[in-house]
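Quick one: structure tokens for this chain, please?
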Amino acid sequence: MKLPKKKQRYTYADYCAWSDRERWELIDGVPSAMFPAPPPVHQRVSSRLYRPLANFLDDKPHCEVFYAPLDVRLNALGDDDDDVFQPDLVIICDQAKIDDKGCNGAPDMVIEILSSSTARRDKLLKFNKYQRAGVREYWIVDIDSRTVQTHILENGRYFTTSYGEADKIAVHALEGCEINLSEVFIDRRIYR
């Protein structure tokens, strides 16, 4: 996609004017293309995380889980509306943050599944943005190592714990919810 006239920084208003046939994110007003499409293994892991979260929330109307693409505007209410992310999975418990364009403000939980093209961005840039914005819980899923790093926000800082494929993880943003990683990383053959 050819961006409109070259600028130092773009805003959400600029972003909305771009073609919806291509996926982009904005980090500090700098566009970042979301390509190529994730491989099937990424989709398998995403769906195996989505299902237990959605099932847990079935009878809890105050929270919803969404999968990509959904625009998350971390600073939607501020003067610099120049951060737009499309996390793999997101949980939002404040219905006032959801509108017809996505999520306005920090969701309660974000899950990013690493790929070679997004790993640095997910581990550094988004980590810092999510922490600063007040995302209560941020998971980074590494398909290759079959691990999950959870980042739980306490007093404005993330505290990190790593889990392996045989572990169960309590979802702090959803009291009583637990994800069994052996059901997420089911069969080694699908990862080849």
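The longest helix spans residues 40-57.
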